[in-house]
Amino acid sequence: APCQVQGHKGLLAGLGDTETQQTTLHPLVGRVFVHTLDHETFLHLPEHVAVPPTVPVTYHAHLQGHPDLPRWLRYTQRSPHHPGFLYGTPTPEDRGQQVIEVIAYNRDSFDTTRQKLLLLIEDPEGPPLPYQAEFLVRSHDVEEVLPSSPASRFLTASAGLWEPGELQLLNITSALDRGGRVPLPIEGRKEGVYIKVGSASPFSSCLKMVASPDSHARCAQGQPPLLSCYDTLAPHFRVDWCNVSLVDKSVPEPADQVPTPGDGILEHDPSCSPTKATARDFLTDALVTLLVPLLVALLLTLLLAYVMCCRREGRLKRDLATSDIQMVHHCTIRGNTEELRQMAASREVPRPLSTLPMFNVRTGERLPPQVDSAQVPLILDQH
């Protein structure tokens, strides 16, 4: 047990502050590039200590001096317990030197270490590969075909569908990067991966038949495509034969005709001479544009003034149209309101009898304060 504890402590300290390592790699233009970020490379452990698979390590890679990777390079990692991968296919515009900084994080001890990858992107040697075919493999994720063993197995299996010649991997892309959907968490469901293969040998008749318009028509109807040869990729790779695309670059594309720049001056054409414009007086148009809106606004103003001022009924007509009972009720309320306002303005007015204590409403008598109110009858006539 003490040895295990010491080994675990040494493992947690493995991602400590160390000098930045630098590794030189040589990607080739037009060829797939795969670099594995494994735990053994970043965990500096003694020789007698093995790397357990339970240590979670994640990675962050970016171009030196930039927050993200270059456009041709991608990074993927299935989980902190699996290795990470840097993969992609450089283009001729990416030729030269690029420095990739990789930072590894130990999720147990929160230690970090840094590594630099010096990428020297060069042109490949050998003949060009004008015949290119891209397959959609439904049975794998992108992390499962990036290692060298599955990639070599795929090249060996696809050689049976090609004319004799050397095959090379040109590109590997996840189906999710092509607009695919994330599969349901069901056993056997994979994301899918696009694998592009190139060769200097022409396509076989089998591949040409798969990519023919007749096969595409059968796929559109839900039927299997035309496949005249044996599927050498099965059962290790389940290929969607309805998504096979062939590119033939052996025939050069016609160059676009570059237009010849001229002097910018059109030649004189008598049939296209400009016509003379006749003189026109805009005074009438200006008067109509200004006077018509003003007259309409003036008419609306007069109509509104007539409705607001000349169509009022008046107080006398309103009082005559009101019933006498309603007028008396209104005058009574108004008079009481005025009286209350006057009483509120002058506090010297005696208090109303209804507000005094022990006041009999019917007789108006005031009982002396010494009398017990409980013995006083409610109706004095009954006493």
Automatic annotation (TrEMBL):
Primary location: membrane
Similarity annotation: Belongs to the sarcoglycan alpha/epsilon family.
Protein name listed in UniProt: Sarcoglycan alpha
Membrane-spanning residues: 286-308
One of the record's GO molecular function terms: calcium ion binding
Species this chain originates from: Equus caballus (Horse)
Pfam families attached to this UniProt entry: Sarcoglycan_2, Sarcoglycan_2_C
UniProt KW keywords: Cell membrane, Cytoplasm, Cytoskeleton, Glycoprotein, Membrane, Transmembrane, Transmembrane helix
Intracellular or extracellular location(s): Cell membrane, Sarcolemma; Cytoplasm, Cytoskeleton
Domain Dystroglycan-type cadherin-like, residue spans: 24-128
Annotated Gene Ontology cellular component terms: cytoskeleton; sarcoglycan complex; sarcolemma
Membrane topology: Single-pass membrane protein
Function: Component of the sarcoglycan complex, a subcomplex of the dystrophin-glycoprotein complex which forms a link between the F-actin cytoskeleton and the extracellular matrix.
